[in-house]
Sulfotransferase
Amino acid sequence: MAAVLLGLLLFAMQSPLVPSRPMADEGPPPPSTSSPTDNGTTSHPNGTLQQLPQIIIIGVRKGGTRALIEMLSLHSTVAAAQNEVHFFDWESHFQKGLPWYLSQMPYAFPDQLTVEKTPAYFTSSKVPKRIHHMNRDIKLLLILRDPTERVLSDYTQVFYNRLQKHKRYQPIESVLVKDGEINLGYKALNRSLYYVHMQNWLQYFPLGSIHVVDGDELIRDPFPEMKKVERFLKLEPQINASNFYFNKTKGFYCLRDHGRERCLHDSKGRAHPHVAPAILQKLYQFFHEPNKKFFELVGRTFNWK
Ligand SMILES: *[C@@H]1O[C@H](CO)[C@@H](O)[C@H](O)[C@H]1NC(C)=O
Ligand SMILES: *[C@@H]1O[C@H](CO)[C@@H](O)[C@H](O)[C@H]1NC(C)=O
Ligand SMILES: *[C@@H]1O[C@H](CO)[C@@H](O)[C@H](O)[C@H]1NC(C)=O
Ligand SMILES: *[C@@H]1O[C@H](CO)[C@@H](O)[C@H](O)[C@H]1NC(C)=O
Ligand SMILES: *[C@@H]1O[C@H](CO)[C@@H](O)[C@H](O)[C@H]1NC(C)=O
């Protein structure tokens, strides 16, 4: 239950006229008596069970993973974990083993597919091998944005976190550039070198197991991107255009789910810091070759500057 409540906090509920608790439809909560078993599932008297995910959203950080998992949840046969589980990338979690991982999964009906998202998986080099070891046939979703935009967004998040904690922060120019050159030691920059990380995944999974979602398109026009995701996951076509509506005040799409309207939390639409045009230009240039390498790896191009 705590997981569900935490998940709800991530949303600004937009429709005060509608009772705003999705779980309220299901009647009084049944007693929670189940505990993980070691056979890969945990069943509950109400007919639901916890299962290891058949789908994982692996990243990228600031790519739009929250939007993607919420949109995927529009589908009735998808059960999504509310929290980022960090099982395969955090040693302290990984050491607890698969029973612990299973215990983090949502209760789902047997015909549903379970999905979790942890954006840090994509850029963590030990993760592909570990996921492959759990399930070599798993379906992976990777949502990417223009790598320069992603760096700025990454910086912005860290910046706001530090601001809130009254900690010192470095201006963006001084982390991006060192001695007049792009600072390769800046981690956020590395996370945007998509081909470096993709090579690592392709050592364990065929390209056909990894669907790349265009995060810029998902924000601009979510419906067509979600149709592609449905097709990749071989889900019955269910998500439709009326599940999305544009909020002019916010400047992005919100979701309509069984008459209930919800938008992503405001922090998802935060403005980026101003960056000197010359530095921005340098960044775009810097990513030109890495992007080309990524396009070659995945056999398709993206509309990145
Ligand atoms: C079934 O039980 C689980 C565990 O208590 C609960 O989380 C879930 O919401 C229940 N689902 C339904 C449809 O009642
Ligand atoms: C797993 O074990 C539970 C409890 O022993 C049982 O109810 C369930 O049917 C088992 N599931 C499978 C898939 O074997
Ligand atoms: C970028 O990240 C990858 C994967 O974690 C690592 O192998 C590589 O050394 C990093 N590159 C730089 C320049 O830090
Ligand atoms: C779209 O999906 C909703 C349920 O999510 C359904 O009520 C509606 O009839 C569908 N609209 C179309 C045009 O298929
Ligand atoms: C649109 O966004 C504004 C600003 O966040 C919000 O106040 C309003 O309730 C939203 N409207 C709808 C229909 O989602």
About this structure: The chain has one domain: 46-298. The first strand starts at residue 11 and ends at 13. The pocket of 2-acetamido-2-deoxy-beta-D-glucopyranose (ligand 3) is lined by residues 123, 125, 184, 190, 196 (CB under 6 Å). The chain is about 35% helix and 20% strand.
